[in-house]
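step: validate -> pass
step: tokenize input -> pass
step: predict -> running
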Amino acid sequence: MPSGEILTVCCPRRLQISDLPVFYPVLVEAADRPEPVRLEASEIERADAAALQLLTSFVQTRREQGRSIEWHAPSAELVESAELLGLKEPLGLCESDPCSDPTSEKQS
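step: predict -> pass
step: emit ->
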């Protein structure tokens, strides 16, 4: 693969435990690839806890390996689900939409 190329992984519309048997192998293959990975997430309509935990593991694995990962147009549904589960920051979704500092909201 030529230098500078990015591997794009398209996330399914439904990112739920019932859909993981198809999506999991895609992430496993992408996890060890040397080129940067872009997660295309604009079409996600639903995301459950199991799927978000899998994505969190994928993101953390890439980071631990020193390999690049980025989100492309994460859907509002994805961001909202991640925020409800406290996974917005671990998923790296704060990079496109800065996470607020909870301590700054409490200060008057």
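step: describe -> The longest helix spans residues 49-64.
step: cleanup -> pass
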